[in-house]
Amino acid sequence: MEMRRTAVVKLAVSDEQRDALHRTGEQYLRCANRTAEFCWNNYDYEKCRTHKRNVRNALYDDLRDETELQAQLVQAAIARGVEAVKGCVERWKKGQRVSRPHFDAETMDYDKRSATFSRREVSLSTVEGRVVCPFVLPSDSPTPYERYVLGDDHEFRESTLRYDGATGEFYLHVSTRRFDGDGEADTDADGSTDTEHQTVLGIDLGVNSLAVASTGTFWQGDEYDHWVREFEQRRAAMQQRETTAAHRAMARLGRRERAWRK
After folding, report:
1. How far apart are CA 179 and CA 199, in angstroms?
2. Buried b (16+ CB within 10 A) or exposed e, 89-107
3. Which sign, positive or negative, has the C-alpha torsion 189, 190, 193, 194?
């Protein structure tokens, strides 16, 4: 059985590092939106492109030439765009209203090649080279980061850097996994992981089985995280305006979010 954990860590960044991360985020979002635009079809979900390898082969070289992003970040942005389109296609097939995904929340996905972890800091790839950012950790030990990221019984999977526009802070969501029993995930005949028996715990949210619907359907975390990030970012932007129009827009956003979560 596969058990996943996510530790959320606040980063201490200098002004120069902040600028580098913002520039990287802008180019990352540009790649993700270009991917979504390339994959999407307004009239027929069967014409939407959802095969990651084919999309990567079609877009990678151009996006590398047009941006200063490291190769892994370009690939991650393409993967995010494809996954978002794939999620929309699944809802479209069920008769739900959908539109082409658009990314405006400043988040970036890092793997082992683009993020290097040590006990108290992380080295992240940016458009200006590597930046080393110390962690802002609580005094209590062990912290979730120490237990799940530095612990020997958990394997690092990926991390997502998120910028909180309301607070002006950067947070790193570090995902790990551990295999119980024979040390391997349950797989079907086609080799895919049996997600029915997985337990997902978001340390920052404190909830279990986050991705299991009442119907028994398992929701992939990538798609869920994408839409949660989008709702959070838009809500924060509206709260900052403090106008009647923004208040009404925030109410509409809340209704849309509640309908989406159903």
Report:
1. 11
2. bbebeeeeebeebebebbb
3. negative
3 pLDDT band (50/70/90 cuts)?
confident
Q: Are 110 and 76 in contact (CB under 8 A)?
A: yes
pTM of the model: 0.68
Backbone angles phi, psi at 204, to 5 degrees: -75, -25
List alpha helices for 94-190, DSSP H.
144-148
Nearest to 130 by CA among 138, 121, 139: 121
Q: Are 248 and 215 in contact (CB under 8 A)?
A: no
- DSSP labels, 214-233: TTSPBPPHHHHHHHHHHHHH
Higher pLDDT, 261 or 186: 261
Taking the C-alpha atoms of residue 248 and residue 133, their distance in angstroms, rounded to an integer, is 38
Whether 99 contacts 111, CB under 8 Å? no
Residues whose CB is less than 8 angstroms from the CB of residue 128 and which lie 6 or more positions away in sequence, other chains included = 20, 23, 24
